[in-house]
Design brief:
Elements lengths: L1 H21 L22 E2 L2 E3 L7 E3 L2 E2 L2 H14 L4 H12 L1
Antiparallel strand pairs: 1-4, 2-3
Helix pairs in contact: 2-3
Length: 98
């Protein structure tokens, strides 16, 4: 009879840490937070583009609002940042804004 009680106590002492590890005894970890939706892109937003230039590497033009005046402004700034001179930049901006 003593052996049965000793074995029962031994099994119970081994089972309690196992239950604590699985989270049944302590309640477990809290639920993970829900994922917040990211920002949405407005439908009139133009994506970035690479505009080819003769005798040069293509110039990256950033995206932004799709209105014509904003696109011309982005093209002028990208051409100037790429080191185009005034005459080259005007030709580039015409090609880019079309």
């Amino acid at each position: 009879m003593r052996y049965v009680v000793a074995i029962a106590l031994l099994l119970a002492s081994c089972a309690l840490p196992a239950l604590a590890q699985s989270g049944q005894l302590l309640g477990g970890a809290p639920a993970p937070p829900t994922v917040m939706p990211g920002p949405t892109v407005p439908p009139d937003y133009a994506s970035p583009s690479l505009v080819p230039v003769p005798n040069r590497a293509p110039i990256a033009v950033p995206g932004g609002p799709a209105s014509f005046d904003n696109k011309v402004q982005r093209c002028l700034e990208a051409g100037a940042a790429a080191g185009l001179g005034p005459n080259e930049n005007s030709e580039f901006s015409r090609r880019c804004a079309d």
